[in-house]
Fold:
Amino acid sequence: MKTIIFPDGFLWGAATSSYQIEGAWNEDGKGVSVWDDICHNKKIVKNRDTGDIACDHYHRYKEDVQLMKDLGLKAYRFSVSWPRIFPSGKGKINVKGVEFYDNLINELLANEIEPVITLYHWDLPVSLHTIGGWESRDVIDSYVEYASFMYDHYGDRVKKWITFNEPLVFTLWFYSFGLYNYKRDIRGGLIASINVNAAHAKAVEIYRQSKNSDGKIGITLNLSPIYPVSSSELDKKAVKYIDGRDNRWFLDPVLKASYPNDMLKLFKVIYNIPPIPKEDLILLENNPIDFLGINNYSCTRVGAKSEEDLTHLEKLINRKKLECREYSEMGLEVCSNGLFDLLTRIDREYNHPLIYITENGMACKDDKNIDGIVQDDDRVNYLKQYLEAVYRAISRGVNLKGYFVWSLMDNFEWIYGYSKKFGLIHINYDTQKRTWKRSAYWYRDVIKTNGYNI
Ligand code: IFM
Structure:
């Protein structure tokens, strides 16, 4: 048995997002978000579930902060619902919505839990979606207006800001399966991703100019280590392209103020994307981040059967399960060494950035309750393995200062509705009763002792 002890001051946290937990979708003047619209009007979400009530966190935030306190969390990462603050995306502010986050932040601070805010975790005000969503440069200005308000109003108490959560997912992936308009539109997704990077850089710029600029600002990317299914040259090329699309396309702008040349060429040939505006690159250059948030759950295995395959990037992902590996309920391979590879690679190739793991966790079956504790041994094993990889990376010199479990509690898992559960805390959606899982007790002890036995 080995004991792992993390460095002093390591930031132990848990994460959630507004649409996934808040509920109160139309209360107190909140505007409609794209996810309200998707859930109400499109037949895409499993069981036609919606986030209308979700975990009812909007009304139960005090009880939830108490849970965090009992867990011993040092930090809580949550996102703000943009349409709760600006119901139409810009212009008139909704005072009640502003008050909700004031109360939440004050409650966290009163319990010595650091609030970490994600400005955007996918719930775009629907009025901005109708003018083109992230494909429209006008949305950048509205986002900057929103961010600016947030820093001015909450920045005296909030000292860690995340501009966006997982741009890869809400641009390239959502557009490529037609989430927003039922039309596969990878080109649109690429244009959206370019605009999001510009919005990110502007949001960093105005943070530095705000009256509360004494905190830290970064972005959260979902990143994956990419492995070839064989050592053939074709498979290695496949790795380069998927790594280019899913990792470098997002890392390079925020850490090198550039876009990867190979991908620019490929995307021009396949999707005829326009050139990156010069002013975007200048903005990115002038506005570096303080930290990189990394969300990681698994690894990606890829391969190509022919040169022709290399121009259809989706075909390169190998979705066949390998018999020797373990998989989560999301069908994702448990691959903690992959996180180690990813962290050491980013450290090496991107000049030793400050990193927080802003999400990591597992969807697993956890419907047994013994003596009042929900049994989720698979999740405990998963977290043990992944935290060990984090520890190894830190020991190798990676500048990693904190870790947030996804998620504090079970919640609305997007197109999977409530069918996938990631929480440390179980939610009974009929009664809204919160019940601790075994993983919650385990994590509480990890935080208390700043480590664990493996
Ligand atoms: O629930 C999501 C979250 O919103 C973004 N990152 C991945 C999580 C689990 O799939």
Remarks:
- The longest strand covers residues 216-222.
